[in-house]
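Hi C.,

You asked whether I'd gotten around to modeling the 133-residue construct. I have! Everything is below, sequence then structure, no commentary in between.
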Amino acid sequence: MPVELGSFSFGFVAGGAVVGIINHLLAGVRDKQARHSKDFNEVAEALADMLRKEREYPSPGSEIDFFAFRRVLSQRELSRFDARVKEYENTKNNCAIALRDENSIYVRISDSYQDATPVIKAIDELMKFTDRK
């Protein structure tokens, strides 16, 4: 009887140790995911604020820095996001009013758009990436 009780106790302790190790590993994964989500949400909120301001008052001269947000995106999301940024930049350039001075070879860009609707649509596409995780 003591041998059977001892082997049962050993199995119980070994099983508990295995469960403890697995729990520890899974906790590490959860912490990493939580950290990534927190980092993503902080950067996404900052970008969303900039995009909301740009959407409210679109201007050809405004510059939005997408670098910090690009760092927290996965490779698949990054390629889609970069395509939308390129679309936004092209739309912004196409909608800008170019003013040519009479006695100058330079062209300056106006501070407003003739029609800002395409720019706002491009901003709306970028805003989809900033949803919280």
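If it helps when you're writing up: The mean pLDDT is 81.

Thanks,
B.
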